[in-house]
Amino acid sequence: MTIENKVERGLFDEVMVPCYNPMEMIPVKGEGARVWDQEGKEYIDFAGGIAVSCLGHCHPAMVNALTEQGNKLWHLSNVMTNEPALRLAKKLTEVSFAEKVFFANSGAEANEAALKLARRYAADQFGPEKSEIIAFKQGFHGRTFFTVTVGGQAAYSDGFGPKPGDVTHLPYNDVDALREHISDRTCAIMMEPLQGEGGIIAPTDEFIQTVRELCDKYNALLIFDEVQTGNGRTGHFYAYQGLGVTPDILSTAKSLGGGFPIGAMLTTTELAQHLKVGTHGSTYGGNPLACAVAEAVVDVVSQPETLAGVAEREALFREGLAKLNDKYQIFAEVRGKGLLLGAALNDEWQGRARDVLVAAGKEGLMVLVAGANVVRFTPSLVITKEEIQEGLSRLDKALATLTK
């Protein structure tokens, strides 16, 4: 690449809508859990594109699937079906409770489909007054107007005019508040089985069991947003499988395509019949390219050794973070499950999660935050043990610069 053609970070400010504030460096190449920027500097990737790159960068299974399908067929529209979509749908029903699948392009779209199905089912079965959706404070379900309203963070949904109605937000893990509020008007409860953006908050056993019981009692559907927790992230293919509770509808995206945009809503045959021809759709949903890549991802991630490896890697992370904490006294606790982990900052470090992210970047380590007080780690599920050690040692250097 000649120097005249170099794409500068300044170009972002010139041509892009300013709703993001990206880092100064621009990555140009990735392999496994490593990334290189324009200057050739190497980074260890503990961010995984926000829990997306579940097999790391340019995994051979994904590259092969994309290349093969790219030479066959890219797009058809939903006037026809295609082989990769059918194979992928079949595999998703085999690794989950689901019997029926709807394909979209993102988590927000999968959640939009889930919410529309819940409302349509309630209207068909019980009438129009059964329309309330209960969701939880600090929840996150996407950026479309419906999903951002159901998400429990007003900062993301305020300022865009009148919101979709009949959405109630309750505190996560508050059994009494839920018991008190739910009624026959409730059509669905939507929740993350482990809150991601909200700070990596796990549900208590009592809470998750009560949610399911109350949904059954009041004929409400339970929607699990597994956009971040799904596809092996917690060590189960889907997080619900480790909680002893099965939802009625499940959304999945992020790591489903390992980096190629795809989302899916999974449900039962009984519920699916309420989305008749013409009631919902997506131009690109279920396109052959995305489905071929996702099929390769599901094949690798659903292997017992891949899922078992997630727990091993979680243990290495927890052990390494505990050692760093002995040294720097920075974390109050490490939350989460599998490779969706959040190191919550202690009282002295409140509000400084982004400082840790920036300092780590300077040392060649990519991490994330979940709010101002939690450093989030969502690396590849197949990151090598050496890469974990190397990344932790770079985090050590980063924390040293902050504690000076």
Automatic annotation (TrEMBL):
<protein>
    <recommendedName>
        <fullName>Acetylornithine aminotransferase</fullName>
        <ecNumber>2.6.1.11</ecNumber>
    </recommendedName>
</protein>
<dbReference type="GO" id="GO:0042802">
    <property type="term" value="F:identical protein binding"/>
</dbReference>
<dbReference type="InterPro" id="IPR050103">
    <property type="entry name" value="Class-III_PLP-dep_AT"/>
</dbReference>
<dbReference type="InterPro" id="IPR017652">
    <property type="entry name" value="Ac/SucOrn_transaminase_bac"/>
</dbReference>
<dbReference type="InterPro" id="IPR049704">
    <property type="entry name" value="Aminotrans_3_PPA_site"/>
</dbReference>
<feature type="binding site">
    <location>
        <position position="283"/>
    </location>
    <ligand>
        <name>pyridoxal 5'-phosphate</name>
    </ligand>
</feature>
<dbReference type="InterPro" id="IPR005814">
    <property type="entry name" value="Aminotrans_3"/>
</dbReference>
<dbReference type="InterPro" id="IPR015421">
    <property type="entry name" value="PyrdxlP-dep_Trfase_major"/>
</dbReference>
<keyword id="KW-0963">Cytoplasm</keyword>
<dbReference type="GO" id="GO:0005737">
    <property type="term" value="C:cytoplasm"/>
</dbReference>
<feature type="binding site">
    <location>
        <position position="143"/>
    </location>
    <ligand>
        <name>N(2)-acetyl-L-ornithine</name>
    </ligand>
</feature>
<keyword id="KW-0028">Amino-acid biosynthesis</keyword>
<comment type="similarity">
    <text>Belongs to the class-III pyridoxal-phosphate-dependent aminotransferase family. ArgD subfamily.</text>
</comment>
<comment type="pathway">
    <text>Amino-acid biosynthesis; L-arginine biosynthesis; N(2)-acetyl-L-ornithine from L-glutamate: step 4/4.</text>
</comment>
<keyword id="KW-0808">Transferase</keyword>
<feature type="binding site">
    <location>
        <position position="282"/>
    </location>
    <ligand>
        <name>N(2)-acetyl-L-ornithine</name>
    </ligand>
</feature>
<dbReference type="GO" id="GO:0030170">
    <property type="term" value="F:pyridoxal phosphate binding"/>
</dbReference>
<keyword id="KW-0663">Pyridoxal phosphate</keyword>
<feature type="binding site">
    <location>
        <begin position="225"/>
        <end position="228"/>
    </location>
    <ligand>
        <name>pyridoxal 5'-phosphate</name>
    </ligand>
</feature>
<dbReference type="InterPro" id="IPR004636">
    <property type="entry name" value="AcOrn/SuccOrn_fam"/>
</dbReference>
<dbReference type="GO" id="GO:0003992">
    <property type="term" value="F:N2-acetyl-L-ornithine:2-oxoglutarate 5-aminotransferase activity"/>
</dbReference>
<comment type="subunit">
    <text>Homodimer.</text>
</comment>
<dbReference type="Pfam" id="PF00202">
    <property type="entry name" value="Aminotran_3"/>
</dbReference>
<dbReference type="GO" id="GO:0006526">
    <property type="term" value="P:L-arginine biosynthetic process"/>
</dbReference>
<dbReference type="InterPro" id="IPR015422">
    <property type="entry name" value="PyrdxlP-dep_Trfase_small"/>
</dbReference>
<feature type="modified residue" description="N6-(pyridoxal phosphate)lysine">
    <location>
        <position position="254"/>
    </location>
</feature>
<keyword id="KW-0032">Aminotransferase</keyword>
<feature type="binding site">
    <location>
        <begin position="107"/>
        <end position="108"/>
    </location>
    <ligand>
        <name>pyridoxal 5'-phosphate</name>
    </ligand>
</feature>
<feature type="binding site">
    <location>
        <position position="140"/>
    </location>
    <ligand>
        <name>pyridoxal 5'-phosphate</name>
    </ligand>
</feature>
<keyword id="KW-0055">Arginine biosynthesis</keyword>
<dbReference type="InterPro" id="IPR015424">
    <property type="entry name" value="PyrdxlP-dep_Trfase"/>
</dbReference>
